[in-house]
Sequence to fold (225 residues):
Amino acid sequence: MTVRVASVAVLVVALLASLGLGARWYTYGHFDPIHAAFALFFSINLLICYWEACLFLRRDYIETRAEHWRERQRETGRIPAFEFLATKIPVARVLSPTVWADVWATYAQYDGAFADRRTFGFNVDTANGFVTLVPTAILLAAYSVGFLPALVAGMIGLMLFWVWTYNTSVYLASFFIAKRHRRLSGRELALAVVAVNSPWILFPLLGLYVSVRLVVDGDYRVMGL
Fold:
């Protein structure tokens, strides 16, 4: 039995987001757009945290696979990221770090930093995978059912959202300072770099506002509670 890589990713995000949305509906009987947005964002980040752990655990393999995908693109003309997402894998291997290492091997076609452990991009993403996993899960639960005092949730949010805003901004700056954008077309730059990374600035900026409100208000009214 096999399943497409893209289907696994979509299913995981949908399941995690549904848990948050469902918990809120069960507890309070209504939805809130801000909560729904963060339920989706946190769910995506939880999946990416796993991918970033795979980046660290399979760093040697990724360097080899990056060259494999580069050569395959020259041979077939296909975009590696799309080809990987369309790949079918055995259900028994959906949690395999080796499988998900190809996320980074294909992205390395746009930014070689992810096949080079000496770079900021490689290290900041592996750090995100291990450091933000637990706070992300805590905030998803807190925003959904309010199990933490608003002050505590706000303080956690201030730390977490600032880390995302700062790190992503520095990563994008380093990408352009290193002139890696020169080897990409305008479309590749817009879609594969700017569009992929901008949510980790835009959502955290909104998250900083929400966190300040949680601290100042002392309750979850900003989340519709």
Summary: The longest helix spans residues 150-177.
